[in-house]
Amino acid sequence: MSARRAAPIVAAGAVLIALLIALALPAGRSEGGHGAILKSRRAAAYTLTPAARPAPAVPLARLPRAGLLFDVRSGAVLWEHDPLRHLRIASLTKMMTALIVAERTTEREAVPIVASALHVGGSRLGFLPVGRTLPVRTLLYAMLLPSANDAANELAVHVAGSIPAFVALMNERAQRWGLECTRYAAPSGFFNQGNYSCPHDLALLAVRILHTPRLARIVRTARITLRFPPPEHTIELVNNNPLLVYRYPGTIGVKTGYTEEAGICLVAAVRRHGVTLGVVLLHSPAIGEQARKLFDWAYTQVYRQRPVPAPPAPPGF
After folding, report:
1. pTM of the prediction?
2. What is the rounded CA–CA span in Å between residue 220 and residue 182?
């Protein structure tokens, strides 16, 4: 890999293909209501609440196993489907990992690459240089765009000294923040056993991501070229979020996830004309299509905004 020609680093091919197909699947209509979501029993600065008035039917042909659509600023729930259901979340786990790393590191802080943290399956960079160092910023981009599991492990070991110690920190933070559906077993989410959450908790994490400037800047990035040791090398990282890939208007993040057990998952956020909306889809049959339909419906039917046509997909997608 040279600086003249950076090779794109993407998650496992099957995952990306599934995400691209998901956006193109045909749309339809289904039932789907809006209802009250249970608040955490613990006090929190931010809570999700029922919308003030009934909304029109949501046009989904099929439903995810669980999902939620909400107004980020007010916390109003616009649509929900089994929002407290405990489900495996795959790489959506990395949202919590990123929040802890952002709290405890600086962007240019050097992370020593250790061999013990590289032993993980799933999507990886695959060529992290053992014995060298990389900036936290580079590893955060690698973890949040192509969802590199080895980058997540390296950050966890750097912050907490070991992966088990970091997982304990994740669970302590989930408890402190009142995430009552959530339990972590790995910083990457690749290990599903004992690793789960629900749309309600993931929505709260999405809000924290969006209000953490260094993370918000990363998750809204469609692709980026970064220096990689040795200095003359570069890598191009591509975001798996299909809304960013296809330039869905106003998209500002947040994270995708996939394993066979978790299915395809998405937490996404869109901002238009001063209104920021978030969506959580767990084990969705078509994350791109469903997210698009929910956002289109909310902006036009609930907020009475004019439709915004999406531009053509960029070359190479």
Report:
1. 0.85
2. 25
DSSP one-letter code for 62: S
* Strands laid side by side in the 8-9 sheet: 8-9, 233-238, 223-228
Residue 238 pairs in a beta bridge with: 223
Which strands make up the sheet holding 49-50, listed edge to edge?
49-50, 76-81, 66-71, 275-284, 263-272, 251-259
Q: How far apart are CA 31 and CA 209, in angstroms?
A: 31
Q: Mind listing the pLDDT tens digit for each residue in 65-78?
A: 999 999 999 999 99
What residues form DSSP beta bridges with 256? 266
The reply to whether 149 falls in a domain is yes
The structure tokens listed for 45 are 């600065």
142 domain-assigned: yes
Pairing of the two strands 233-238 and 8-9: parallel
**Segment 162-214, tens digit of pLDDT:** 999 999 999 999 999 999 999 999 999 997 788 999 999 999 999 999 999 99
CATH number at residue 264: 3.40.710.10
Domain hosting 92: range is 8-25+84-275
Query: ∠ at Cα 163 (9, 261), nearest 5°?
Result: 60
Please tell me the distance from the alpha carbon of residue 142 to that of residue 218, in angstroms, as a whole number: 10
Query: For the packed helices 163-176 and 149-160, what is the interaxial angle rounded to 10 degrees?
Result: 80
Q: CA 69, 73, 75 angle in degrees (round to 5)? A: 50
3-state secondary structure of 207: helix
Q: Is residue 181 part of a domain?
A: yes
Distances (CA, A) of 139 to 112, 179, 216: 11, 26, 15
Q: How far is residue 68's CA from residue 163's CA, in Å, rounded to a whole number?
A: 31
Counting the structural domains of the chain, the total is 1
Residue 252, domain member (yes or no):
yes
Instruction: Determine the Cα–Cα distance for residues 244 and 242; give it in Å rounded to an integer.
Output: 5
